[in-house]
């Protein structure tokens, strides 16, 4: 009996000790887990919130589909970057454009042993955007340009690639990685000024070539019309050649990426009747596809061919350019015949080419490839609208047989 009581007492003590141990472990685990919730931040907290990237990487971070915040693990190392500018912490200039830290919890990070809340991080000025040749070549004698943000520590946050044709002084295409979260992008950021960079153009000021009176004079001269006639390039209507983005401003998630689209190498002469209407709808449709299907897309946007107008005396079609050197007759900066966009899901390898005709004066138009637009339930363009630009869709393979500047990618099917 004695032994048995002892055993029972010993048993109770043992159980209590066990329970105490379990409780302690559970409390520790719970505490640990609370800490391990990590950090959650809204990336556009202030107008010039620093870019936040995982330490040592060069990739823009995006929210998970359906969210509008960025998440970091407890103690995850991150870099806060103000490209070409300085990071401000609690309104104090750190005099550094890159600061390393790690996530503590909520919106608090540890930087140089101090706790700093995300809303108290800022940049000293508008980021310094960069466009530069990479030294690589691309399709059809193009030269590869990368556009984005130089961090100053041997990293480049690439926002867009451009395959630039130095002869015609226009991009064959531009390329972006389109996040599934694109419709959570920053809205209403101020429009930056246009830059033409250095080393890309040899036709003077590109802005000047687009000025309405100048484009009218150039085009009218080509087609034998009085250079001040507003017959084709009108005043106060959408019948003029706008600086048409290839990669749209709204294709950028971060204000920095939106601003990066304002390089002249990203634009081509686009009738505003088309730019602001059917083409705009194609851009919206691709973004909505990414968002609705929660897929990251690869998106190429480019131009092809040269639009024409009839010569006013002979009636012959004349190709239109915004740069003409009357001395050596060099022509550059063509008015493209079409704008195109290839949207591609790299995981399923399904893609589609969307094409729009850039000339409101064409009464009819023969597609470059077999139109399959009726199969794309997600496409909302008005296909047969002359003023807004005829629009259609093709498989990537049939499109590439004509538009050889589109990179050769493996395609298993149509992006439905
Ligand atoms: C940044 O530089 C300014 C001017 O040189 C100096 O006054 C300031 O103390 C520096 N800030 C830090 C955090 O080192
Ligand atoms: C994180 O949020 C919790 C709950 O609001 C709060 O108790 C905790 O103090 C916060 N941590 C920091 C470091 O601010
Ligand atoms: C797209 O993402 C790939 C990595 O998947 C990267 O190598 C490339 O530089 C990115 N390109 C652009 C233009 O963002
Ligand atoms: C984008 O450009 C606008 C207009 O210049 C500027 O106000 C804004 O700060 C820029 N954003 C970034 C992140 O540089
Ligand atoms: C061009 O049109 C303007 C205004 O209608 C007119 O004054 C001018 O004489 C015309 N020039 C030529 C060469 O026909
Ligand atoms: C036009 O061509 C001539 C002869 O090649 C050249 O000297 C001149 O610089 C060119 N003008 C422009 C604006 O490119």
Keywords:
416 residues; alpha+beta; Extracellular Endonuclease, Chain A; nine-stranded mixed sheet; five-stranded antiparallel sheet; 25 strands; globular; disordered N terminus; binds 2-acetamido-2-deoxy-beta-D-glucopyranose
General description of the model:
This protein is of the alpha+beta class. It has 2 domains: 39-123, no CATH class; 130-414, Extracellular Endonuclease, Chain A. The protein is 20% helix and 31% strand. The chain is built from 7 helices and 25 strands. Strands 11, 12, 13, 14, 17, 22, 23, 24 and 25 form a 9-stranded mixed β-sheet that branches. A hairpin with a 5-residue loop joins β12 (142-150) and β13. The longest helix is centred in the N-terminal third of the chain and has 34 residues, at 2-35. It binds 2-acetamido-2-deoxy-beta-D-glucopyranose (6 copies). One 2-acetamido-2-deoxy-beta-D-glucopyranose (NAG) binds at residues 92-95. The chain crosses the membrane at residues 7-30. Residues 156-399 form the DNA/RNA non-specific endonuclease/pyrophosphatase/phosphodiesterase domain. Belongs to the DNA/RNA non-specific endonuclease family. One of its GO terms (cellular component) is nucleus.
The whole-number mean of residue pLDDT values reads: 93
N-C termini distance = 80 Å
Strand content: 25-35%
Point out poorly predicted stretches. Answer: 1-9
Which class best fits the helix and strand makeup? alpha+beta
User: What is the CATH superfamily label of the largest domain?
Assistant: Extracellular Endonuclease, subunit A
Keywords: Endonuclease, Hydrolase, Membrane, Metal-binding, Nuclease, Transmembrane, Transmembrane helix
Domain DNA/RNA non-specific endonuclease/pyrophosphatase/phosphodiesterase: 156-399
GO molecular function, one term: RNA endonuclease activity
Active site: 245 (proton acceptor)
